[in-house]
Design a protein that fits this description.
Length: 183
Amino acid sequence: MKIKTTVRFVFACSVILFLSGSSSTLHAQGPEGKEFGFGLILGEPTGGTIKYWVNPENALVADIGYSYFGAPRIDLDYVWHFHAFNSNVVKLYGALGGAVGFGNGYYGVFYKRGKYYVISDDAPFYYRSYYNSDVGFGVRAMFGLNIIPRRTPLELFLEAGPLIGISPFGVAFDLAVGVRFYP
C-alpha cells in the first residue's frame, strides 16, 4: 500500500515536470540564462538540491537528503519568484510543495518521535506521532531569498517555512541555506 502511494507521488511529480518544461517557450532566469542547476542544501533537509526554471518567474525545485533528526527525505516544490527589490540579482520567492519522509523506530518521518528527548527522560518534546510509520507525507510552504550574482554560474538561497505532516500528523519548521551551480 505505501509503496503504491510513493510510486504514484513520483509519477505525478514526473508528469508535472514534463508538462511544465514542454509548455515553456520563454527564456529561463537562472544564472547566465541557464535552466538547470544542482547543488547543496544545509539545514532541513541537508543533502542535494536541483532546480529547473520553467519560465522567468517559476521553477521546480527538488531536494533529497537527511532531516536533522536522521530520517531520509525528498521534497518537491513549485516556486514563484518576484522582484521585491527591483533587482535581477536579489529576488524573493514563495514555494508550495510536498515532502516524503522515510523513518521508523525512534527516528520519525519528518521529526523525532515520542514525547521525550534522548538526553533526558523528563524533557518534553512537542512533536508526537505513531511509532509504526515508515513513510510519511507532508506539505510545505516556503518563503526565501534568492541571490544570483552577475556573471557567475552560481545561485545562493536562504529559505524557511512550515512543514505539515499529513501522515503521520505533525508540524515542523524547515530552515535551510544552499548554493546551486548551473553548468
